[in-house]
Amino acid sequence: MATDALEALRKSITAVDSELLELLAKRRGLTNQVAETKIKHHIPVRDQKREEQLLIRLIKQGKTVGLDPHYVTQLFHVIIEDSVLNQQAMLASRANPDSELPLNRVAFLGDKGSYSYLATQKYFSRRAGELMEIGCQSFAEIISKVEKNEADYAVLPIENTSSGSINEVYDQLQHTSLSIVGELTHPIKHSLLVKGETSISAIKVLYAHPQVFAQCSHFLAELGSVEVKPCDSTSAAMITVSETDDPSVAAIGSEAGGALYGLHAIKSNLANQKENHSRFIVVSRKAVSVPLQVPAKTTLVMSTVQKPGALVESLLVLKDNNINMTKLESRPITGNPWEEMFYLDVDGNIEDGPMQNALEQLAAITRYFKVLGCYPSEEISPTRVAAVNALAE
């Protein structure tokens, strides 16, 4: 009797879930119509005042049906982010009709299951055309695939909130003619992955990418005398473990990726920082045009003249043009000891007046200067609404 009642409830839940999916699809369709209007009338994609009003109304409405304000806020942050990213993708595709391909050939690090693979799936899920995955074993190979027209795009990890910048990728950008055309931030959730039944105390050998070892150094210290073996990618580590029946062997990678190779997690959240995210860039042979309605980011590379205050002088150009710099990275110039190449990420569109002024001024005062790419920013900061204040209004 109890089993029958439970099964009936589960069927009802399944039916409600199906209705929710249909409603979410309907909502996305309506927001796509909103994007059409914004394209026609040159209206910015984001309207944070409208988003704030929406959240306040939903929090109040949720309270009347017994839903926690924080739950409602978290849920609609995800829905709003999806709406913004879809609208941005629509505007970007309209501005770059030549980029609409029936088949997107994308090179990335590793094989199925690597973090770069998961990031590739996420980014191109919003783009038209089929996806052809091209797994590579090094960043140099990834860049080469696009340069030789063996791939249309490359997805490259550029920095991590725990282990910092990925210097090898910056060095590759210094010597390529490819342009950055997109970005995304992907959550990195490291798990200890094994093939069969075992325990943490039984692990003697651990496979992972060097960046992963750096991000999980505290966990490795707790393990004690475990042999760590670096791999070219997290997928390579998972493949190695999947091909052995040794219960003392494990890999560190994503639980979703491990499942593709028959692995399961015996411990999760291994990173030193629990909020662990990697930022990826997307590069191609041809630059893209970013509509002014879409928040844009521009990446620059430059070397300054050898005199005191040269870098400060360059950064003041950004300040004088009211341009926000979000990242500054330096890398040695090959063959020039003690000289640095500077990489800058700034908020702004190269088609905008202040940005054009800044680029002209920087080109005039630096020894070397190049725009590596202007592309839509996909770092969607959630609109903040204090739930208590929303209920009090």
Furnish the topology, listing elements before pairings:
Elements: H1 2-41, H2 48-64, H3 69-95, E1 103-109, H4 115-124, E2 130-136, H5 139-147, E3 153-160, E4 164-165, H6 167-174, E5 179-187, E6 191-194, E7 205-208, H7 210-215, H8 217-223, E8 227-230, H9 234-242, E9 249-253, H10 255-259, E10 264-268, E11 277-284, E12 296-304, H11 310-320, E13 325-333, E14 336-347, H12 353-365, E15 366-376, H13 387-392
Parallel strand pairs: 1-2, 1-3, 7-8, 7-9
Antiparallel strand pairs: 3-4, 3-11, 5-11, 6-9, 6-10, 12-14, 12-15, 13-14
Helix pairs in contact: 1-3, 2-3, 11-12
Commentary on this structure:
With 393 residues, the protein is α/β, with parallel strands linked by helices. It has 4 domains: 95 residues, Up-down Bundle (Chorismate Mutase Domain, subunit A), CATH 1.20.59.10; 100 residues, D-Maltodextrin-Binding Protein, domain 2 (3-Layer(aba) Sandwich); 78 residues, Periplasmic binding protein-like II (D-Maltodextrin-Binding Protein, domain 2, 3-Layer(aba) Sandwich); 81 residues, Alpha-Beta Plaits, CATH 3.30.70.260. β1, α4 and β2 form a beta-alpha-beta unit. It is built from 13 helices and 15 strands. The chain is globular. α1 packs across α3, α2 runs antiparallel to α3 and α11 runs antiparallel to α12. Helices cover 43% and strands 26% of the residues. Keywords: Amino-acid biosynthesis, Aromatic amino acid biosynthesis, Cytoplasm, Isomerase, Lyase, Multifunctional enzyme, Phenylalanine biosynthesis. One of its GO terms (molecular function) is prephenate dehydratase activity.
